[in-house]
Amino acid sequence: MGVILLSMKTVDLMLSARWVVPIEPSGAVLENHSLVIHDGRIVALVPTDQALTQFQPAEHQQFVEHALMPGLVNAHTHSPMTLLRGVADDMPLYEWLQQHIWPMEARHVSEEFAHDGSLLALAEQLRGGTTCFNDMYFFPEVTAKVTTQAGMRGSIGLLLIDFASAWASDANEYIQKGLDLYDSNKTEPLLSFCFAPHAPYSVSEDNLRRIKVLADELDLPIHMHVHETAQEVNEFQARFGMRPLEKLAQLGISGPNFLAVHMTQLTDAEIDFLAESGTHVLHCPEASLKLASGFCPVHRLQEAGVNVAIGTDGTASNNDLDMFGEMRTAALLGKGVSGNAAALPAETTLRMATLNSAVALGLADEIGSLVPGKAADVIAVDLSELESQPMTSPISHLVYAVGRHQVSDVWVAGRQLLRQRRLTSIDEADLRARIIEWQKRIAAARH
Ligand SMILES: CSC[C@H]1O[C@@H](n2cnc3c(O)ncnc32)[C@H](O)[C@@H]1O
Ligand SMILES: [Zn+2]
């Protein structure tokens, strides 16, 4: 016994579970395996009986009726917009943006708005099993700070839009503030950055050229709403004599460092072009459905070889940050739109919300699957509930049957941020009080 103990490796944490869904190297489910974690990284994923003879963990948690899987990666959102949840429903994109959201943002967006809205987004996402999100909003330095304070992982958008806001008055200031944010945080382990020009219709060609030069110089991805509605494409065509994607191709923006959000309007030739250029598509099915923007042809994109990731978009159009719900919608919609029940099977959809999102964000070496060497961004999903019975297939249940309330525990870089459904790094009571104040302020301004 003494000899065995001596040869055992001391590690920080062992998570043993009935089921583990690592996503890579195979999409298969492992039974009775343990994840071994040290210094925030996965050091082994082995059968539990083997793990117990090889490793001596400082902490050992056992999940007898749970599945462990990689944290979900929300490929597109606008965190502070949680404060605008439910303010403008049941209308199309331009009416929603121009008559409701932009005027409300002009009235309310501030450092404090970005702080409290981001905190609410972090809390909602962690409680729903999302461990990393890709953001685009005003005051990104505030979102970045709250994210690191909470211990979550974030890809922060260096925003550009051609109108003055509480954050910046013109393109020069937007770009400079973005670069300053990047410079002062580029070594922060939980943060990464994307340039985030809002859309082809809201950022001039000259400014897009500037972003392209900077993105090449710093080797950062560019993240942008593109071909969201037919109206966008038609109006752009009337103004510039070409479709937005063609303009972006002309500017050299499309390619493996380009993340195109929505993409509901695509010709066959454009699908081929996206595949050839290595452009990533960030699919936000619920926001596109709610705004009746159109349908992203996900199955055709995947058949062509395009990397398609899943995002929620913001809560003013979704209206939640529920990546389990989003996976289910993506899978069902993908079948409906393609007329093919075999399109977007559960395993593919789970991969879209984890590894594909990580690939799009340039983070696949770090997150998106449970592979030794990667960061320990892990979630435990309780499958003991009646609603998950009988346990015919964990992967099927995770996509088609599980609700986000079944996420019991969450770790980011090996740090536990949700323990038996309680947040460990965010004060829920304080957050609730702040949100009630915002509710009053926003309601008062509307009357
Ligand atoms: C300038 S920060 C981001 C900007 O985007 C707005 N927004 C949120 N959702 C969408 C969407 O689906 N399409 C276009 N613009 C969107 C948000 O209100 C902010 O102003
Ligand atoms: Zn968006």
Describe this protein's structure.
The protein has 447 residues and is α/β, with parallel strands linked by helices. It is built from 16 helices and 16 strands. It has helices spanning 2-7, 48-54, 93-108, 111-127, 140-150, 171-185, 205-218, 230-240, 244-250, 268-277, 285-290, 298-304, 323-338, 346-360, 394-400, 428-446, and strands at 9-20, 30-38, 41-47, 55-70, 72-77, 130-135, 153-160, 191-197, 222-226, 258-262, 280-283, 308-310, 378-382, 407-412, 415-419, 422-423. The strands form 3 sheets. The protein has an 8-stranded mixed beta sheet. The chain has a 4-stranded parallel beta sheet with strand order 5-6-7-8. Strand 2 and strand 3 form a beta hairpin. The longest helix has 19 residues, at 428-446. Residues 78, 93, 97, 101, 105, 136-138, 159, 161, 198-199, 225, 228, 287, 313-314, 317 line the site of ligand LTUXU72L. It comes from Ectothiorhodosinus mongolicus.
Compose a concise summary of this entry.
Helix content is 41%, strand content 24%. The protein has helices at 2-7, 48-54, 93-108, 111-127, 140-150, 171-185, 205-218, 230-240, 244-250, 268-277, 285-290, 298-304, 323-338, 346-360, 394-400, 428-446, and strands at residues 9-20, 30-38, 41-47, 55-70, 72-77, 130-135, 153-160, 191-197, 222-226, 258-262, 280-283, 308-310, 378-382, 407-412, 415-419, 422-423. Helix 4 (111-127) packs across helix 16 (428-446).
Biggest pleated sheet: 8 strands, mixed
Strand tally is 16
CATH first level of the largest domain: which class?
Answer: Alpha Beta
Strand content: 15-25%
Number of domains: 2
The low-confidence runs, each spanning 5 or more residues with pLDDT under 50, are none
> How confident is the prediction overall: mean pLDDT?
97
- Taking the alpha carbons of the first and last residues, their distance comes to 74 Å
From the spread of the alpha carbons, the general shape counts as globular
Radius of gyration: 22 Å
- Tally of separate helices: 16
The small molecules bound here are: ligand LTUXU72L, zinc ion
| Assigned CATH superfamily of the largest domain | Metal-dependent hydrolases
Provide the structure class: alpha/beta
CATH architecture of the largest domain: Alpha-Beta Barrel
Look up the CATH topology of the largest domain. Answer: TIM Barrel
Helix content: 40-55%
**Widest β-sheet, arrangement of strands:** 3-2-1-4-13-14-15-16
InterPro entries: Amidohydro-rel, Deaminase_MtaD/DadD, Metal-dep_hydrolase_composite, Metal_Hydrolase, MTA/SAH_deaminase
Protein name: 5-methylthioadenosine/S-adenosylhomocysteine deaminase
Family: Belongs to the metallo-dependent hydrolases superfamily. ATZ/TRZ family. Belongs to the metallo-dependent hydrolases superfamily. MTA/SAH deaminase family.
Binding site for substrate: 105, 198, 228, 313
